[in-house]
Amino acid sequence: MVCRNLLIALVLLVSAWPVQAQLRIFACEPEWAALVRELVPNARITTATSYLQDPHYIEARPSLIAAVRAADLAVCTGASLEAGWLPVLLQRASNPAIQAGRPGLFFAADHARLHASHEHVDRSMGDVHPEGNPHVHLAPDEVPEIVQALAQRLAGIAPEAAPGVHGRYLRWRAGWNRLRTEWRARAQALEGASVVVQHTGFSYLLEWLGVRVIADLEPKPGLPPSASHLSELLAVPELAGANAILIASHQNPRPAYWLAEQTGLAVITVPGTVTDNPETASLEGLISAIISRIELTVAGAAHGSL
Fold it and tell me: What InterPro entries does its record include (predicted)?
């Protein structure tokens, strides 16, 4: 009888605990979905883009509109990266919680120090972001600040989940700091290396590693490589000492391979964001993999991709 009463009391106690509703998150890019999952593992996350897509150019599909309408929080890059499609989603979804200036809309770029800002921008400059380079998810020193702000925002939206979010954030940050120390040690062997790129997607990480960018396959940011521009690159003096051509998985590889044929440079193709491959399914794994690919190429490995 005592055991039965204890069981009933336990059931009543458990039923009295507040039930944590499953948070619904809309992530503009996979890197933010991965980081939300670190903080709230049971969240329902809809991701608008994949590593095989250019995040500048996404169609505002009905499924994405529905996801924004149902979301508790939208996590995006900001700094005009999604300017071509996110405003349409927000307008059509009509979710009052997810609008500019409201807690339900989180822009990672608002919590980071961006490079290459511009006071004046016009069409002649190409796809230039006045706020600065938005591809800050590959900045080892800025990501922790973004995740800290994201954890605070999540805790504010779901106070009942705050203790768990805070604990997972502390564990994540400790792991990130350990890896950042490892990356910094590995960067010593890469300092002075140089690459050709296509767009500025890897700029933060390359600068952090001490790897120089000597040329860009794009004639202007966001403009596809042209035959005339590629021919002009052959006259860049630093090209002779470059180590590789670095491009993202979503980019057309033909310009890179054309230049490789003319120069003998290796082509490194890596994801620009996290993927569904276990090796690069987290931001930590992605950065580690990119560094490994550059290390192998600098050491003399041939063409390859992740």
Answer: Bact_metal-bind_prot9, ZnuA-like
Q: Phi and psi of 40, rounded to 5°?
A: -135, 80
Give the tens place of pLDDT for each residue, 186-229: 999 998 999 999 999 999 999 999 999 999 999 988 899 999 99
Contact 273, 290 (CB under 8 A): no
**Residues above pLDDT 70, as percent of the chain:** 87
Q: Which of 150, 135, 167, 156 is nearest to 287 (CA)?
A: 135
Handedness of CA 260, 261, 264, 267 (dihedral sign): positive
Is 248 strand, coil or helix?
Answer: strand
CATH number at residue 172: 3.40.50.1980
Question: Residue 35: phi, psi to the nearest 5?
Answer: -75, -35
* DSSP per-residue string spanning 161-230: GHHHHHHHHHHHHHHHHHHHHHHHHHHTTTTT-EEEESSSTTHHHHHHHTPEEEEESSSSTTSPP-HHHH
> What does DSSP assign to residue 19?
P
Q: What is the pLDDT of residues 113-130, one digit of tens each?
A: 998 655 555 554 446 567
Are 40 and 162 in the same domain?
Answer: yes
Give the max Cα distance, the chain: 90
Order of strands, sheet of 44-47, starting from the edge strand that comes earlier in the sequence = 44-47, 24-27, 73-76, 105-107
CB 253 within 8 A of CB 247: yes
Do residues 208 and 139 lie in contact, with contact meaning Cβ atoms separated by under 8 Å? yes
Tell me which residue has tokens 């192998």: 296
Q: Cα separation of 77 and 63, whole Å?
A: 20
d(CA 296, CA 303): 10
Q: Which carries the bigger pLDDT value, residue 219 or residue 304?
A: 219
Domain assignment of residue 276, yes or no: yes
